[in-house]
Design a protein that fits this description.
By secondary structure, this protein is of the alpha/beta class. It has 15 helices and 14 strands. The strands form 3 sheets. Strands 11-10-9-7-6-5-1-12-13-14 form a 10-stranded mixed sheet. A two-stranded antiparallel sheet has the order 2-4. The protein has a two-stranded antiparallel sheet with strand order 3-8. Helix 4 runs parallel beside helix 5.
Length: about 375
């Protein structure tokens, strides 16, 4: 069990910025004192998920994290995802409500996938329902171009809001994030930070997430310094999943080493996170934790075992099935998909799907095993 407590400490230390206010919020959401039965179910699911992830045993686990696509489409057309090319479609509040009610063991919800979530007029209502009524930690990414009034965001029940900014160079930003205006994005970010400061709150956590590539390596330190100046809580560097020539290319091991250097350099000034690199970083050590802990549901009802890009471009390769909130037997369909998920998790250790092989987390495990053998 000592390993379990090490993982628990990892979650506390790495996934959250802990102080009293945030710790109290997290605890009351994940294990609500007013709902002891729900708290016990979630504790049990945490333990079962740990054994599934650590030892590869086959157990009836439920997703701890649920990613739901509230909007498909974007007012930007970023070169790494091209969501701006999709026809904008939004999930209705009642559809969202029916979906998350099927996952009581889920502790955290991510409100976006292939689009800008604030294009939905129902987003804050969804956030509040998931946070207040369903007692979940709610996170969303945003390009920060159309943010609602800052006070409404602060009071929505949102746990973390993450601004997608890959560079503070205006010319480069306009190339990477087509149709985007860096000045508008930064102004909205500053307004949100200022509003939270005025209200004396530490929630929501406000972060910057940067897609890291060879071309943006030179921007990484500038992002950190701007984040410190603006007053955000942390900076996350996410590895570019695949190249988007001629604009962005997958980073190398030397690029990753540069991020490690910056993380150490600024460790006493701001929290810097490094995710999804095959050579390490802040992703949880060991076998793929995403497959064991999360589930993604897109706007069309496709259900995926993690957040793989294949879910957007080639859903047939990784879908576990389809659910629709209007289904008469929704609970039965969800149960069938959860059974398929258990089978998928159990088999993927030994028969890795093709879409997993291109993931940096899979490559990381392969690389780590080679180092052990050598």
């Amino acid at each position: 069990m000592s390993n379990f407590f090490q993982i628990a400490l990892f979650i506390i230390r790495k996934l959250f910025l802990i102080d009293f206010e945030r710790a109290l919020f997290i605890a009351s959401q994940i294990f609500p004192p007013s709902q002891p039965e729900l708290s016990l179910r979630r504790m049990k699911n945490f333990l079962l998920t740990y054994f599934v992830w650590k030892f590869g045993v086959k157990l009836p686990v439920k997703p701890i994290v649920l990613q739901i696509e509230s909007v498909r489409g974007c007012n930007f057309n970023c070169v790494m995802c091209r969501a701006g090319q999709f026809e904008t479609r939004t999930m209705k509040f009642e559809e969202f409500k029916k979906i998350i009610c099927q996952f009581p063991e889920t502790c955290a919800v991510i409100m976006n996938f292939a689009g800008e979530p604030f294009l939905s007029k129902d987003l804050l209502r969804m956030i509040r329902y998931a946070s207040v009524e369903r007692k979940m930690l709610v996170t969303t990414f945003s390009n920060f171009s159309i943010l609602p009034e800052p006070e409404k965001v602060i009071e929505s029940g949102l746990y973390e809001i993450i601004a997608s900014i890959d560079t503070f160079n205006r010319e480069k930003f306009s190339v990477i994030r087509e149709k985007g205006d860096l000045d508008v994005v930064v102004d909205n970010l500053k307004r949100l930070v200022q509003e939270r400061r005025i209200r004396g709150k530490k929630i929501p956590v406000i972060s910057i997430s940067a897609v890291f590539s060879r071309e943006t390596k030179e921007d990484a330190e500038d992002i950190i310094e701007n984040a410190i100046k603006i007053g955000v809580d942390r900076v996350k560097f996410q590895r570019l999943f695949f190249s988007a020539p001629p604009y962005l290319h997958v980073p190398t091991k030397d690029d990753f080493a540069h991020l490690l250097y910056l993380k150490e350099k600024y460790k006493n000034k701001i929290d810097v996170r490094i995710y999804n690199f095959e050579w390490g970083g802040d992703s949880m050590p060991g076998f793929c934790y995403l497959a064991s802990s999360m589930l993604t549901i897109d706007l069309f009802g496709n259900v995926f075992p993690c957040c793989t890009p294949y879910a957007i471009f080639e859903p047939h390769k990784s879908s576990l099935g389809i659910i629709h909130p209007s289904d008469q037997k929704l609970s039965e369909k969800v149960s069938d998909i959860l059974r398929r998920r258990v089978e998928f998790i159990s088999k993927m250790r030994y028969f890795t799907p093709d879409f997993c092989r291109s993931c940096p987390l899979f490559k990381r495990e392969k690389w780590a095993n080679q180092q052990i053998k050598n």
